[in-house]
Design goal:
Creatine Kinase, Chain A, domain 2, 453 residues, 2 domains, 6-stranded mixed beta sheet, ATP binding, Gln_synth/guanido_kin_cat_dom, alpha+beta, 8-stranded mixed beta sheet, Ubiquitin-like (UB roll), 14 strands, ligase
């Protein structure tokens, strides 16, 4: 009921909107929900609408994972869903006047369920409130534009430049000409972001043809920042279709090109508004060192949360700016935890492991869990890296899906903060997905073994 004025103001300002998408973000970061008409949307704001609890047992294909205990074994019960504040927005790319609103699933006390995307992050945020500390984050997301046509084997192709008419083949990181070629697309992304009040700013051409990165402003409203990341992904895909492209956040769509990453900048402030990482030195103070120590200590356990799918692990290779070891350093892009150069008041750590397929709520929750444990237990990181981390360290992170699943299954630190209920549900989904994945026989296997075995 407390958000009803927000709805009433929206309805008054948008009398032509008759279609509302109510969106839940499942544990894979996939958008699920219901489409309501104007007469039905008020119910969401007055009392909530019901959705199956098994929504959060969905695997990547949308099938319910029975091992979670959220599906048919326990009756596949419905739970109420409530609107997320400030997420009711126009959908500017829709063919008819439409709106969208994010929602979260709650228990009988109206609290977000701890094993849901919103719930697990809120649980970690509450830990920092106890420390009287406020995290501030800034997400960066990479994606590819693709030709809507596939090659003869069904594989994706880089886009055809709207300016030259030729298929993109060159890698021009930070290239201005590449931004010019796709200026119309980027302009419409910006316009849609403004219409949806998504604070996206910097766009850069990345390390592969048709690859871009868009950054979100730093924010101390962590739930809202993750909402914006989810909304931005939907927006980019929709605007790409309007320009006759596909957009993908798949971590590694091309074997011979760089992958799509998801970097997260994190700083911490006290109640007086002081950056508690800053002390005038490049490497920051003890608090920052302990935060990085916690990130390092939990990185192996949390790899599955940063790289949740089979394709995620194709990103990781030497010299590709994808960390292979929990290294850290100042102004060094070869490390997993980078302290960027800049003013002391903006002292922060950039976490560089995740792929763009990571659920932002869950990935952020895992990072903050590491920082929380590092600060409260005064954990120490390894030696600071001043050179190429790929040359200095042997890989120690789990670099296959199987290894990451095992590391998460055996985790001791992260469940202390994320909660055993969330860890159980997430693990069961990934175990089920792995089983499905290994049941497929690839064309490569037929090519290699059908005749010669």
């Amino acid at each position: 009921m407390q958000l009803l004025p927000e709805l009433n103001a929206f309805l008054e300002a948008n009398p032509d909107v008759n279609q509302f998408d109510v969106i839940l973000v499942d544990l894979n970061g996939i958008l699920r929900g219901k489409r309501l008409d104007r007469n039905a949307i008020t119910k969401l704001y007055k009392s909530g609408i019901l959705m199956p609890r098994s929504t959060f047992a969905s695997d990547i294909e949308g099938d319910t994972t029975d091992g979670t205990g959220l599906g048919i074994r326990t009756g596949d019960i419905d739970c109420p869903c409530l609107p997320v504040a400030n997420s009711l927005k126009i959908v500017p790319w829709a063919h008819e006047p439409s709106a969208q609103v994010l929602a979260y699933m709650v228990d009988e006390d109206g609290e977000a369920l701890r094993y849901t995307s919103h719930g697990v992050l809120q649980n970690v945020i509450d830990k920092f409130k106890e420390l009287k500390l406020k995290p501030i984050i800034a997400p960066e997301l990479e994606f590819f534009l693709l030709d809507r046509q596939r090659d003869e084997d069904g594989r994706p192709l880089p886009p055809i430049s709207p300016v030259t008419g030729a298929r993109d083949k060159n890698t021009q990181v930070y290239g201005i000409a590449e931004l010019d070629d796709y200026a119309a697309f980027l302009r419409d992304v910006k316009a849609a972001a403004v219409a949806q009040n998504i604070p996206a700013d910097t766009a850069i051409a990345e390390y592969a043809p048709g690859q871009f990165e868009i950054n979100l402003h730093h924010s101390d409203d962590l739930i809202q920042a993750c909402n914006h990341a989810i909304e931005l992904k939907r927006l980019i895909k929709a605007v790409a279709l309007q320009h006759d492209f596909d957009a993908t956040f798949m971590p590694k769509p091309f074997a011979d090109l760089s992958g799509n990453g998801f970097h997260m900048h994190i700083s911490l402030y006290d109640e007086a508004g002081n950056n508690v990482f800053a002390n005038g030195e490049d490497l920051g103070n003890d608090t920052l060192r302990h935060a990085i120590g916690g990130l390092s200590a939990t990185m192996e356990e949390g790899m599955l949360l940063a790289a949740p799918g089979a394709n995620s692990y194709r990103r990781f290779s030497p010299e590709c700016y994808t960390p292979l070891h929990p290294s850290w350093g100042f102004n060094n892009r070869t490390v997993a935890m980078r302290i960027p150069a800049g003013p002391d008041a903006a002292k922060r750590v950039e976490c560089r492991v995740a792929g763009a397929d990571a659920n932002p709520y869950i990935y952020l929750a895992s990072l903050l869990s590491g920082i929380y444990l590092g600060i409260t237990q005064q954990l120490e990181p390894g030696p600071v890296t001043q050179v190429n981390a790929y040359k200095e360290f042997e890989p120690t992170l789990p670099l296959t899906w199987d290894a990451a699943i095992q590391s998460f299954e055996e985790a001791k630190l992260l469940p202390q903060v994320l909660g055993s209920e969330f860890c159980h549900v997430f693990l069961q989904i990934k175990l089920a997905e792995r089983q499905k994945f290994h049941e497929f026989i690839t064309m490569q296997e037929y090519d290699w073994y059908l005749r010669h075995a």
